[in-house]
Specification:
single chain; about 100 residues; Recoverin, domain 1
């Protein structure tokens, strides 16, 4: 299923993203919340205000439930890897690929 939805992403990249996503999901609820996203970005030396974090989350959260699920994270990775940054938060558009992919 993932290969059909994300044909531009290699299996190894998807598996690595899943491993990182699971690690980042500290409470095990299978979504990344604002606090978990802040922890990930801070651990990767990326500092954002709470408002910036909220804007980033809102730009990625396609179902608008306030959380990032794995498919939403893969969508960001796919956009970054194919340079389709226009629908991302301005804070993510200028971030480096390696730092932004740490969101998983």
């Amino acid at each position: 299923m993932l290969a059909e939805h994300f044909p531009g992403l290699s299996l190894s990249l998807i598996l690595d993203a899943e491993k990182r996503f699971t690690s980042a999901d500290t409470n095990g609820d299978q979504v990344i919340d604002l606090s978990e996203m802040d922890n990930i970005l801070t651990a990767n030396n990326m500092m954002f205000t709470k408002k910036q974090l909220e804007e980033i989350l809102e730009s990625i959260d396609t179902d608008k439930n306030g959380y990032l699920d794995f498919l939403e994270v893969l969508t960001v990775i796919e956009r970054l890897s194919s340079n389709k940054r226009s629908k991302l938060s301005p804070h993510l558009q200028t971030a480096t690929k390696s730092a932004t992919c740490s969101i998983q």
